[in-house]
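Friendly challenge for the regulars: who can give me the structure tokens for this chain first? No prize, just bragging rights.
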Amino acid sequence: MKTPSFFRRSELTSTLWAFRQEFLIVGVLSFLTNLLMLAPTIYMLQVFDRVLSSGSELTLVAVSLITLFLFGVMALSEWMRSRVLVRAGMQFDDQLSTRVFNASFEAYLGQSSTNPSRAFSDLIQIRQFLTGNGIFALFDAPWAPIYIAVTFFLHPWLGVLSLVFAVVQAALAWFGHRHTVAPAEDANAAVTDSTNYLQSKLRNSEVLESMGMVGNLLGRWDQKYQIALAKNASTLSLTHRVTAVSKFIRYTQQSLSLGAGALLVIDGQLSPGAMIAANVLMGRALAPIDQLVGTWRGFVTTRSAFDRLEKLLTEFPERDPALSRVAPTGEVTLRGVVANALGRTTPILKGISFAVPAGTVVAVLGPSGSGKSTLARVIVGIWPDVTGDVLLDGLPISGWNRMDLGPHIGYLPQDVELFEGSIAENIARLGDVDPTKVIEAARSAGLHEMILRFPKGYDTPIGEAGGLLSGGQRQRIGLARAIYGNPALIVLDEPNANLDDAGETALLRTVAELKAKGKTVLLITHRPGAIAVADRLMILRDGEIVANGPRDAVIAALRSTTASVETPTSAVQPA
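First reply, four minutes later:
Bragging rights claimed.
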């Protein structure tokens, strides 16, 4: 029998629920701590009403020692509940950190509407709230009625006074909730928007500087930043007003309770010790409420972080780790594939269907915007919005465990992204460096001699994103990374865009070697030399296949349909 949807917990809620035992322990320790908070009140009653009247030093020493012992137990309880929460917070972070990383990565890959850049900040925000003063205020708040009840025992009028102030403080907390939640969320969203805008543009700092665009960028960013500042200032102003009123109420309560107690002492209805004790009890009763008001902004921020993280984890559920299959041979099949993109009304790929046997080299041609790069991403399973069947060895590529599938796929995108580290580490895909495999991949890419000319050879650091290398060097290292470990399927998107003649010769030799090894290669290119090593030729135009088949047959068909003699690449516009 399935659990009704309204009883099901989200992944994030279930993770928190797993720490219910820790929260129960904290609740018990909070009970003990708050119970011992009555010790100062009892001590004052004993000193003022018994010790001073009897003048017994022995009684004073005994009462003081007992109270000191209770204070020690209270401090130990406070320390233990803090320690339990800190350890629970670390375990909570440890359980979710890998999961959040994977979900954030998939969100970046899938161009999600969520903002994955804030995922770890949200996780830290939740952890810090769970281990901070805000959570203690929630555990201490239920004790406010108990303290008020004890005040009633001392004198009914003092109990009524403490109850009135508690209601006023609770109303203030409710007012703060109603009027600060939405503005705080808007302010946080505005700050995030301005920050993300600036960070995304600074990635192109060289273009901005070379063409004098920094001033224009500053103006656009400043508009967003000023909006964020205005919203943040408005939210802080309201929060500070609520806090100021809360302080006024607290100080007023302390003075009025003491004055009311003094009046009752003058009338003979209350002892001096009970007057002081009542004042302390009122302060303790209102302290959790006052603390809730003070930490309300943190609670609002944490709730927003919780909602964002919950949405991210729900949108990108954890993949089944049991999805492990036999190593693929490289057979690729597409059936009625349609690829869409956010903000685009028409599909990029329109009902693409073809089959590529294992061990085949396919050259893909077509004009700019025809969908070649999208097709490459679809084949390796990284395009987010795809309908139809994308099969690898007859099985949906989405059904593979990506960690298992990754070593069997090589991919070289148009924009080669390298990572901070050494040349060897980048070729080895940031995994454990196998020198034999690294050198084999580098030799296959015609890169070995060039690497040896670097100061530290394969251990040469390449800088952030390969900034210390030329475009051609980055592309050739990216090619070596793509063929590292002899994957069964290699997809190369314009691999010769930044190569010189020597580099292109090495590329053609690499493709020929892969063909000899029985690897499946999809080569997106516009240079005639690359077409010469292909078994099959595929031509895309406007997201559709206009020609597909054996290379020579496609070339012959193109020649027969043109009015004049053309080369294979002049039959289509350069990509």
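The first strand starts at residue 332 and ends at 339. Confidence is low (pLDDT under 50) at residues 1-7, 563-575. Your move, everyone else.
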